[in-house]
Amino acid sequence: MENEKKIPSWFIYFFGSFGGILFGYDIGVMTGALPFLKIDWASAMSNASLVGWVTSGVTFGAIFGGAIAGQLADRLGRRRMILYSAVIFCIFSLLSGFAPNNGTMYLIIVRCFLGLAVGAASALVPPYMAELAPARLRGRMNGLNQTMIVSGMLISYIMDYVFKGLPVSWGWRVMLAFAAVPAIILFFGVLKLPESPRFLVNHGQNDEARKVLSYVRDNDNEIDSELSDIKKTASAENAAANKSVSYASLFTGKYRYLVIAGVGVAAFQQFQGANAIFYYIPLIVESALKINASDALIWSVLQGVILVVGALLYMIIAEKFKRRTLIMTGGTIMAISFLIPAIVNKITGTEHPILLLVFLCIYVFFYAFTWAPLTWVIVGEMFPLAVRGKAAGLASSFNWIGSFVVGLLFPIMTASLPQEAVFAIFGVICIFGVIFVKFRVPETKGISLEEIEAKNVKE
């Protein structure tokens, strides 16, 4: 078997999760570009709704990108769809940098198309990583995906900070166009990646699936055992579904329990308000400390560092705690972090901007090693093989719907409500997220995808 190992496992895991860089960069890049865009296009960007649309245009496109990619991935393969996503991302990143002066609608439309690639990456990477990683390492490998996402965000924050000294009229353009660089790296890295072994088995390519497993498993016994499990699951699912599963059937008795759990977690991750911080932290700091948003970009870098530290912490503890324990603990602390500033302000009758910013940092840290990575671990682990592509795409779409709504409404909400009150609303949603996990999400730690399916799919 050794003579077949031509692709190192580290290379597969690294570039298999590198799509997270694209995901993360475009989440973060507008954070720094927006203050300069508002200066450059002062008249066109004076409306809070337009600010929301320019910022959240990517997430609007991602709603559809996740669903489309999930459906096509079941027919064309995870690897090929990741390649297509990298190409689309590169093209529309460059087009963003060439936006005509005051071309608000142009930028919104281009960023919507860019969102197709971002949504595809968010839907494709978790199942791909889950289908390659052994059960004992699956949480940690998906933690690698989250580390890539937050590293992409940190890179975008750093690039924003580096480019802030450029002339206003093209500094923000360079920030947006620079996203093409990681897209190009991803494309050439994925060219050498294998297809998912579960996809190969589901399409009758058993020998190729065994070869792929040899890259990422330790011995022949482990390979033979897992290949046998995959074949049995694929055979049963294909017989039941005839390889044709509609979106409506995702919510039938057979699949409903797991689909609701995975989609619900994906939606709650965004409705809890994390992206309000990541998109608008300079504007949040501007409002809190009464300084120019362009001078608050160092706070974006701080948030990025906290995210990376949290993601690395998750990789250390991923296999030491149950999924539900981590995500419920994180959600509880996140809720408290949002609620305390509002409660203190209500009791004292005065604003405490530093208190708000400190608790936002606490929120980001706990989010970074609980809800941020575990959402995609659960999405990658939860769904049966016959519906995994469609269900993962649906979960990704609901996640992006939440991100879009938060990105669009946050500037509108803060225009009419104190920031502390807006974050308190998100804190209440965090509490509902914890309750949902407690009663609707099964534990998946250390269990093979086939065992999860056999245990939880209701006949």
Automatic annotation (TrEMBL):
Keyword Transmembrane assigned: yes
Keywords assigned: Membrane, Transmembrane, Transmembrane helix, Transport
Domain Major facilitator superfamily (MFS) profile: 12-445
Membrane topology annotation: Multi-pass membrane protein
PROSITE patterns, sorted: MFS, SUGAR_TRANSPORT_1, SUGAR_TRANSPORT_2
A GO term for molecular function: carbohydrate:proton symporter activity
Superkingdom of origin: Bacteria
Homology family: Belongs to the major facilitator superfamily. Sugar transporter (TC 2.A.1.1) family.
Name of protein: D-arabinose H(+) symporter
UniProt organism field: Paucilactobacillus suebicus DSM 5007 = KCTC 3549
